[in-house]
Amino acid sequence: MSVLLAKMLAGYLLGSVSGSLWLGRLRGVDIRTMGSGNAGGTNAFRTQGAWFGISVGLVDVGKGLLAAWLGGLALWGDEGGLVPALCTGAAAAAGHVWPLYHGLRGGRGVAVVLGVLLWLWPAGLGVLAAVLLLTLTTTGYVSLGSVLGAVSLVPAAWLLRSESDRPVWLIAAAVTAAFVIFTHRANLARLRARTEHRFERARVLARLFKR
What we know:
This protein is mainly alpha-helical. About 70% of the residues lie in helices and about 0% in strands. It is built from twelve helices and no strands. The N and C termini lie far apart (about 60 Å).
């Protein structure tokens, strides 16, 4: 148990390294004072351009992947495996949302989730990404796509995982969905009020179907 807690602490500290804020320092900006005020990849993309947003995304996905890899290692008598990997990845996501180094003001955590899935369950990543992209290209709302993508992990875990690890993945998927809904609660409120920012240029399918 002590090794698992140490892994989770390492995951949290790793997650606290915010790609947008560290890269923003090199640019002399703090994106928390711009756009939506969120320190995530979407706001980085919106306020600083595509290359900056992509760079931030790579950092945040990378730390999720690294945390899951670290958690799965067999270290100092700890057997490692799926559950420690998921716990350490979850700690990294929490660090991203509430970063120790940045006044507990971070991003929404979706990029870190993508990194964890990339290492532990690529098929689940594919499901989440497909739902996110479909929602984005039809509605233009990244937040809605993120929430629906996270929720889609629950049926994906039921349908795609084997009986041996299905219970673990169902729990992980449900926790992930609840976490993403919680971190996007302000976005969901703006969606209800019809004041959420929409990426009109991303609505490729919506424009295609209108033809």
